[in-house]
From TrEMBL:
InterPro entries: AcCoA_carboxyl_beta, ClpP/crotonase-like_dom_sf, COA_CT_N, Malonate_beta. Pfam families: Carboxyl_trans (PF01039). One of its GO terms (molecular function) is lyase activity. PANTHER family: ACETYL-COENZYME A CARBOXYLASE CARBOXYL TRANSFERASE SUBUNIT BETA, CHLOROPLASTIC (PTHR42995), MALONATE DECARBOXYLASE BETA SUBUNIT (PTHR42995:SF1). The keyword Chaperone does not apply. Residues 1-192 form the CoA carboxyltransferase N-terminal domain. This is Biotin-independent malonate decarboxylase subunit beta. SUPFAM superfamilies: ClpP/crotonase. Keywords: Lyase, Metal-binding, Transferase. Gene3D superfamilies: 2-enoyl-CoA Hydratase, Chain A, domain 1. Its EC number is 4.1.1.88. It comes from the Bacteria.
Length: 278
């Protein structure tokens, strides 16, 4: 049965955008032929990519204007540097301007990223900070919808961007966390976090766990039609009354009472956040 379902994860970044947009409405901004790529990677003997691993396109979804931003997880682990980060921030800022001009534009972020590109550290950090500011500005007009579908997941500074989204969609294969498993293992030791223990990793940061912990708004199958339908539903739903990132009065007291001397089990995390969406 699974073979008959059109996979979203198996598509590359550009194909994912086209799968979501209405037919013949795809218009890419700064496509690979513009040759806007990182000026820093070749200096470190790394082959750059012509779109810097970020696809930005304007189009229509259900005949409504949208901008879709898709990060290619296969290029440098989906990491963001100066160019890719600027493309995302610029697109979000322009979408906010469109809204202020009376063009109701929704942003959709397809997140397959490890966060900041280490080879462009400070430049990447600055770009991601601009992305955060742009999301907060845009989401007051129309929803910013994030999708974390594939096994690359969403980590680092871009996990904060995911947390700022109006709505967040995940599959079982997706992962979401502030620090990646290998980073935690490197800093705290394998006894604390074994990055090779895949069932353990997904039990902590996987889509099913994030759904049970009320960290996301929709848990879907790896099915491009189902993901598209859920995005459409959130567009219709509009801006939420309270964004998750603004609900600090709920989260802060719970975080302050956690005993970090012992690692919480997945079911304990789920119990900790019960009532988050109420």
């Amino acid at each position: 049965m699974l073979l008959n379902k059109p996979s979203f994860i198996e598509l590359n970044a550009r194909e994912r955008v086209k799968a979501l947009l209405d037919e013949n409405s795809f218009r890419e901004l700064l496509d690979p032929f513009a040759r806007v790529m990182s000026p820093w990677l070749m200096k470190q003997n790394i082959v750059p990519q012509a779109d810097d691993g970020v696809v930005v396109a304007k189009g229509m979804l259900q005949q409504q204007p949208v901008v879709v931003i898709s990060i290619e997880g296969l290029f440098q682990g989906g990491s963001l540097g100066e160019v890719g980060g600027a493309k995302i921030a610029g697109a979000l800022e322009l979408a906010a301007e469109d809204n202020r001009k009376g063009i109701p534009t929704t942003a959709i972020l397809l997140l397959e990223t490890g966060g900041v590109r280490l080879q462009e550290a400070n430049l990447g950090l600055a770009a991601i900070a601009e992305i955060h500011a742009a999301i907060v500005d845009l989401r007051q007009y129309h929803p910013v919808i994030g999708v974390v579908a594939g096994s690359v997941g969403c980590f680092g500074g871009m996990s904060i961007a995911a947390g700022l989204c109006s709505y967040l969609i995940m599959t079982q294969e997706g992962r979401l966390g502030l620090n990646g498993p290998q980073v935690i293992e490197q800093e705290a030791g394998v006894q604390e976090y074994d990055s090779k223990d895949r069932p353990f990793i997904w039990s902590i940061t996987g889509g099913q766990q994030r759904s049970a912990s009320a960290m996301i708004d929709s848990f879907v199958e790896d099915n491009r039609d189902q993901i598209k339908q859920q995005i459409q539903a959130f567009m219709t739903q509009g801006v939420p009354q309270l964004h998750r990132s603004s609900n600090y009065q709920f989260y802060l007291p719970r975080l302050e009472n956690i005993d970090t001397a012992e690692q919480l089990k997945p079911e304990q995390v789920q119990a900790l956040y019960q009532g988050a969406s109420s």
